Structures are given as structure tokens and as C-alpha cells.
Amino acid sequence: MAWFMGIDIGSGSSKGVITEDGKLVAYHVLPSKANYRVVAQKLRDELLAKVALPPGDITYTIATGYGGGSVPFSNQQVADIRCCARGISNIFPSVRTVIDVQGMSSQVIRLKEGGQVINFVVSEKCAAGSGRFLEVIANVLRIDLKDIGPLSLKSKNPITFTTGCAVFGESEAISRVSEGISKEDILA
Fold it and tell me: What's the predicted TM-score (pTM) here?
């Protein structure tokens, strides 16, 4: 039996998985805090508890993400673009384009068959293109983050924001709500 652990310490949330012989057997998600080492250790402890394993039974651990360098027990750190490409390719083999909206940035990855990265672009210029912006808009609209996609698909008259800035975007969303524009149209 071969047990592997993957730890992704992101700027907003931290994720972890354990696989046994290539099959997912445990996963856990925690909010990332100021101390990535502490979050990594807590994530590891939670994962190991789910499968009742001691740390020594893990064959190999890979760390990735914004705080991936802060995972003291990892055997290797791998760029998040490679990890994302490989993971998506394993779950959805026919996918050739990945859009990854992270806490502080967004990236678009083009893939070959087998999950090999052809090209990618990363946007880190402004929170407007990040998961944080989606959280801000969800808060303005008083909805759960998970409801953004389904609600946006119900739009009848999508509006266009006049700004690409997260700070001004929040103000504009508040104004649109006060104008009576529907949540669905704001989200679309």
C-alpha cells in the first residue's frame, strides 16, 4: 500500500488530500491563517485522523500554493499551475483549458492530453480578478459564495460594471442593489 499526501496552502484556504494506491481516501479544507506552518500541521493532523494513520505511513508528501514553502513535512514543493493541471486532467481527462480563481489571483492554463501544461497566464494585478472579489460581492448581495454560479445563470438582463477595480466594484454593486437591480443580473 502506498499512501500519498498533497497539501495546498492558499492565501484564502488550505486544502489537503490523502490517496491510497491512487484513490482519494481523505480530504480536508481549512481557512488559511497568518501562520501557514500551523495551518499545514493542523491540516495534516485532520487528514491523518480521518484515515487513522500515523505520519510515518505516508510515503510522500507534495506541497503547493501560496504558502507551500511553509510545509515543513513535505518531501517536495511543486508549482500550483502544475498541480492544478495534473489534478484536473486526472478527474476530467478531456479538459484542455482550466480557469483557476484563487484568493489573491486568477490563472488560465492550457493543457495537452495527459495534463501537460502548454501555456498559462496569471493575473495578480488587482483583487477584481480573484476569489476575494467574489467573496466581497457575495457579501454585498448577502448570498453564499456557492450560490454565485447558479444565480448568475438565471439572469435576464446582465449588467456591465464600469470598473475593473475591486474597491470600486464593491461600491458599484451596492449602488446597483439600491437601484433595484436583481442579484442575478449583478452576478451575470
Answer: 0.74
